[in-house]
Protein backbone atom coordinates (compact mmCIF):
# COMPACT_ATOMS: atom_id res chain seq x y z
CA UNK A 1 0.00 0.00 0.00
CA UNK A 2 1.44 3.45 -0.84
CA UNK A 3 2.85 5.37 2.12
CA UNK A 4 0.82 8.29 3.43
CA UNK A 5 3.74 9.71 5.41
CA UNK A 6 4.91 13.19 4.53
CA UNK A 7 8.30 13.29 2.83
CA UNK A 8 11.39 13.47 5.02
CA UNK A 9 13.65 16.50 4.67
CA UNK A 10 16.70 15.67 2.51
CA UNK A 11 19.82 17.76 3.14
CA UNK A 12 23.60 17.73 3.35
CA UNK A 13 24.91 15.91 6.41
CA UNK A 14 27.74 17.30 8.52
CA UNK A 15 29.59 16.13 11.62
CA UNK A 16 26.78 17.52 13.80
CA UNK A 17 24.70 14.65 12.39
CA UNK A 18 27.25 11.97 13.32
CA UNK A 19 25.42 10.82 16.46
CA UNK A 20 22.13 10.57 14.60
CA UNK A 21 23.76 8.67 11.77
CA UNK A 22 25.47 6.30 14.21
CA UNK A 23 22.10 5.62 15.85
CA UNK A 24 20.44 4.83 12.49
CA UNK A 25 23.32 2.56 11.48
CA UNK A 26 23.76 0.65 14.78
CA UNK A 27 20.88 -1.87 14.44
CA UNK A 28 21.93 -2.77 10.89
CA UNK A 29 25.40 -3.62 12.22
CA UNK A 30 24.31 -5.52 15.32
CA UNK A 31 21.17 -7.21 14.00
CA UNK A 32 21.55 -7.77 10.28
CA UNK A 33 24.05 -8.60 7.57
CA UNK A 34 23.16 -5.52 5.50
CA UNK A 35 26.46 -4.16 6.85
CA UNK A 36 29.54 -6.37 7.08
CA UNK A 37 30.80 -4.37 10.06
CA UNK A 38 30.46 -6.25 13.34
CA UNK A 39 31.12 -3.40 15.83
CA UNK A 40 28.87 -0.36 15.46
CA UNK A 41 30.92 2.81 14.99
CA UNK A 42 30.26 5.60 17.48
CA UNK A 43 29.61 9.24 16.60
CA UNK A 44 33.31 10.13 16.72
CA UNK A 45 34.13 7.38 14.25
CA UNK A 46 31.30 8.44 11.91
CA UNK A 47 32.55 12.04 12.07
CA UNK A 48 36.07 10.85 11.26
CA UNK A 49 34.75 8.94 8.23
CA UNK A 50 32.80 11.99 7.05
CA UNK A 51 35.92 14.14 7.04
CA UNK A 52 38.42 11.60 5.70
CA UNK A 53 40.03 12.70 2.44
CA UNK A 54 38.91 12.61 -0.25
CA UNK A 55 35.85 14.21 1.30
CA UNK A 56 32.75 12.73 -0.34
CA UNK A 57 29.04 13.51 0.02
CA UNK A 58 27.01 12.45 3.05
CA UNK A 59 23.26 13.15 2.80
CA UNK A 60 20.81 13.05 5.70
CA UNK A 61 17.07 12.47 5.88
CA UNK A 62 15.45 14.31 8.75
CA UNK A 63 12.01 13.95 10.29
CA UNK A 64 10.80 15.97 13.28
CA UNK A 65 14.35 17.20 13.83
CA UNK A 66 15.91 13.72 14.00
CA UNK A 67 18.10 11.92 11.49
CA UNK A 68 16.05 8.98 10.16
CA UNK A 69 18.32 7.93 7.32
CA UNK A 70 21.46 8.72 5.43
CA UNK A 71 23.34 7.92 2.24
CA UNK A 72 26.98 8.48 1.46
CA UNK A 73 29.73 7.79 -1.02
CA UNK A 74 33.17 6.44 -0.18
CA UNK A 75 36.21 5.68 -2.33
CA UNK A 76 35.60 2.40 -4.16
CA UNK A 77 39.23 1.34 -3.77
CA UNK A 78 42.32 3.05 -2.35
CA UNK A 79 44.48 2.35 -5.41
CA UNK A 80 45.11 5.53 -7.41
CA UNK A 81 43.55 4.55 -10.73
CA UNK A 82 40.21 3.97 -8.97
CA UNK A 83 39.96 7.54 -7.75
CA UNK A 84 37.03 8.50 -10.03
CA UNK A 85 34.96 5.56 -8.69
CA UNK A 86 32.86 5.58 -5.53
CA UNK A 87 30.87 3.04 -3.55
CA UNK A 88 27.47 4.15 -2.27
CA UNK A 89 25.46 3.05 0.77
CA UNK A 90 22.14 3.97 2.32
CA UNK A 91 20.55 3.13 5.67
CA UNK A 92 17.23 4.10 7.18
CA UNK A 93 15.67 3.74 10.61
CA UNK A 94 13.51 0.63 10.38
CA UNK A 95 10.20 2.48 10.59
CA UNK A 96 11.29 4.95 7.89
CA UNK A 97 11.35 2.28 5.19
CA UNK A 98 8.88 2.29 2.32
CA UNK A 99 8.18 6.05 2.32
CA UNK A 100 10.42 7.05 -0.60
CA UNK A 101 13.22 8.24 1.69
CA UNK A 102 15.85 5.83 0.33
CA UNK A 103 15.08 6.94 -3.22
CA UNK A 104 15.24 10.63 -2.26
CA UNK A 105 18.57 10.20 -0.44
CA UNK A 106 20.09 8.36 -3.39
CA UNK A 107 18.80 10.85 -5.93
CA UNK A 108 20.45 13.68 -3.99
CA UNK A 109 23.67 11.67 -3.57
CA UNK A 110 23.72 10.86 -7.27
CA UNK A 111 23.30 14.55 -8.16
CA UNK A 112 26.23 15.60 -5.96
CA UNK A 113 28.82 13.27 -7.53
CA UNK A 114 29.27 14.26 -11.23
CA UNK A 115 30.10 17.94 -10.51
CA UNK A 116 32.92 16.70 -8.25
CA UNK A 117 34.37 14.74 -11.16
CA UNK A 118 33.31 11.20 -10.23
CA UNK A 119 32.60 8.89 -13.15
CA UNK A 120 31.21 5.60 -11.81
CA UNK A 121 29.24 4.60 -8.69
CA UNK A 122 29.25 1.05 -7.35
CA UNK A 123 27.17 -0.61 -4.65
CA UNK A 124 27.77 -3.91 -2.91
CA UNK A 125 24.68 -5.62 -1.48
CA UNK A 126 24.79 -8.64 0.82
CA UNK A 127 22.26 -11.04 -0.71
CA UNK A 128 19.39 -11.46 -0.39
CA UNK A 129 18.21 -7.89 0.21
CA UNK A 130 15.11 -7.33 -1.89
CA UNK A 131 14.62 -3.73 -0.79
CA UNK A 132 18.19 -2.67 -1.53
CA UNK A 133 18.27 -4.48 -4.88
CA UNK A 134 14.92 -2.86 -5.70
CA UNK A 135 16.15 0.60 -4.74
CA UNK A 136 19.39 0.35 -6.70
CA UNK A 137 17.54 -1.01 -9.74
CA UNK A 138 14.97 1.78 -9.49
CA UNK A 139 17.81 4.32 -9.50
CA UNK A 140 19.33 2.87 -12.68
CA UNK A 141 22.10 0.71 -11.21
CA UNK A 142 22.75 -2.44 -13.25
CA UNK A 143 24.13 -5.75 -11.93
CA UNK A 144 27.81 -6.50 -12.37
CA UNK A 145 28.16 -9.90 -10.72
CA UNK A 146 28.20 -11.74 -7.43
CA UNK A 147 31.11 -12.33 -5.06
CA UNK A 148 30.39 -15.79 -3.57
CA UNK A 149 31.00 -16.41 0.15
CA UNK A 150 32.49 -12.92 0.43
CA UNK A 151 31.76 -12.41 4.13
CA UNK A 152 31.09 -14.44 7.28
CA UNK A 153 28.71 -12.91 9.80
CA UNK A 154 25.98 -14.18 12.14
CA UNK A 155 27.24 -17.74 11.81
CA UNK A 156 27.23 -18.12 8.06
CA UNK A 157 28.74 -17.05 4.76
CA UNK A 158 27.14 -14.39 2.60
CA UNK A 159 27.29 -13.57 -1.10
CA UNK A 160 27.63 -9.94 -2.17
CA UNK A 161 26.06 -8.69 -5.37
CA UNK A 162 27.65 -5.69 -7.06
CA UNK A 163 25.77 -3.03 -9.00
CA UNK A 164 27.07 -0.02 -10.90
CA UNK A 165 25.78 3.28 -12.22
CA UNK A 166 27.52 5.54 -14.77
CA UNK A 167 27.61 9.09 -13.43
CA UNK A 168 28.88 10.79 -16.57
CA UNK A 169 30.70 10.03 -19.81
CA UNK A 170 34.23 8.88 -18.89
CA UNK A 171 36.49 11.78 -19.98
CA UNK A 172 39.58 10.99 -22.07
CA UNK A 173 41.74 13.06 -19.71
CA UNK A 174 40.04 13.20 -16.30
CA UNK A 175 40.88 16.02 -13.94
CA UNK A 176 41.35 15.26 -10.24
CA UNK A 177 38.08 14.89 -8.30
CA UNK A 178 37.22 17.86 -6.10
CA UNK A 179 36.45 17.65 -2.39
CA UNK A 180 32.78 17.78 -1.42
CA UNK A 181 31.52 20.37 1.04
CA UNK A 182 28.09 20.33 2.73
CA UNK A 183 25.74 23.02 1.49
CA UNK A 184 25.60 25.94 3.94
CA UNK A 185 22.73 25.55 6.41
CA UNK A 186 21.17 28.70 5.01
CA UNK A 187 21.04 27.01 1.59
CA UNK A 188 19.74 23.61 2.57
CA UNK A 189 20.14 22.81 6.26
CA UNK A 190 17.21 24.94 7.21
CA UNK A 191 14.87 24.13 4.37
CA UNK A 192 16.41 21.14 2.61
CA UNK A 193 14.69 19.39 -0.24
CA UNK A 194 11.48 17.51 0.38
CA UNK A 195 11.84 13.83 -0.52
CA UNK A 196 10.10 12.59 -3.62
C1 LIG B 1 17.16 -0.38 1.22
C2 LIG B 1 16.45 0.84 1.80
C3 LIG B 1 17.46 1.99 1.94
C4 LIG B 1 15.35 1.26 0.82
O1 LIG B 1 14.84 2.52 1.21
P1 LIG B 1 13.27 2.85 1.19
O2 LIG B 1 13.08 4.27 1.58
O3 LIG B 1 12.54 1.83 1.98
O4 LIG B 1 12.93 2.68 -0.34
P2 LIG B 1 11.92 3.63 -1.14
O5 LIG B 1 10.62 3.71 -0.41
O6 LIG B 1 12.60 4.91 -1.47
O7 LIG B 1 11.69 2.79 -2.46
C5 LIG B 1 12.37 3.11 -3.67
C6 LIG B 1 12.28 1.91 -4.58
O8 LIG B 1 13.06 0.83 -4.05
C7 LIG B 1 12.38 -0.41 -4.29
N1 LIG B 1 12.03 -1.02 -3.00
C8 LIG B 1 11.96 -0.42 -1.78
N2 LIG B 1 11.63 -1.32 -0.85
C9 LIG B 1 11.46 -2.50 -1.48
C10 LIG B 1 11.13 -3.80 -1.05
N3 LIG B 1 10.89 -4.06 0.26
N4 LIG B 1 11.08 -4.78 -1.96
C11 LIG B 1 11.34 -4.55 -3.27
N5 LIG B 1 11.67 -3.30 -3.74
C12 LIG B 1 11.72 -2.31 -2.85
C13 LIG B 1 11.16 -0.09 -5.11
O9 LIG B 1 11.52 -0.13 -6.48
C14 LIG B 1 10.88 1.34 -4.70
O10 LIG B 1 10.20 2.05 -5.68
P3 LIG B 1 8.57 2.11 -5.64
O11 LIG B 1 8.22 2.60 -4.27
O12 LIG B 1 8.25 3.06 -6.74
O13 LIG B 1 8.13 0.70 -5.88
C15 LIG B 1 15.80 0.53 3.18
O14 LIG B 1 14.94 -0.57 3.04
C16 LIG B 1 16.81 0.20 4.28
O15 LIG B 1 17.33 1.10 4.96
N6 LIG B 1 17.06 -1.10 4.47
C17 LIG B 1 17.97 -1.57 5.54
C18 LIG B 1 19.42 -1.16 5.31
C19 LIG B 1 19.94 -1.67 3.98
O16 LIG B 1 19.72 -2.80 3.58
N7 LIG B 1 20.68 -0.77 3.31
C20 LIG B 1 21.29 -1.08 2.04
C21 LIG B 1 22.62 -1.72 2.26
S1 LIG B 1 23.28 -2.32 0.69
TrEMBL record:
Protein name per the record: N-acetyltransferase
InterPro entries xref list: Acyl_CoA_acyltransferase, GNAT_dom
GO molecular function: acyltransferase activity, transferring groups other than amino-acyl groups
Domain N-acetyltransferase residue range list: 8-168
Keywords: Acyltransferase, Transferase
UniProt keyword RNA-binding present: no
Ranges of compositional bias, category Low complexity: 177-196
Region (Disordered): 170-196
Amino acid sequence: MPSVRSPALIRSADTADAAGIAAVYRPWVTGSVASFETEPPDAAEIARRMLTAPRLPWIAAERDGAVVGYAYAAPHNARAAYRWSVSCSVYLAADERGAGTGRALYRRLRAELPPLGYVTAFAGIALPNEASVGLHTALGFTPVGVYRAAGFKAGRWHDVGWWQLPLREPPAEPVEPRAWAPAPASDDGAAGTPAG
